[in-house]
Give the backbone structure.
Amino acid sequence: VVEVYRFWRNFENLPRFMDHLESVTVIDENTSHWVAKGPAGSSIEWDAVIHNEIDDELIAWRTLPGAEVSSAGSVRFTPVGESATEVRVVLSYEPPAGRLGAAVARLLGEEPSKQVAEDLRRLKQVMDAGDPAGAPRYSASRT
């Protein structure tokens, strides 16, 4: 649990397994700047703040006012047996253009629940490699 939590908690690691992220820059202990891939080669940016954290167990965040995409969520790390960790992500977001944007995103294969599942699969690959600091970046391709 500790290894997975610490890897995730260094938010600059997240683009290594979250295919939709271009970068995350840590501003201070609780604030970070995020850049994600948007439609048609554009980028979407926002700042987020951690509002609840339990070491080795939980990270909860929300975007700051003025974000292009308003979101909040949490990631919980739970030990499963002696050498496995369950990672559970809860995400709430309001896409650009409201419900119409969400419908278009689903049509284009950008459904958030699918993205999260793919991201967690890539996280497992990185962690299973045994050296997350030196593990290669994984990305999924869509055709």
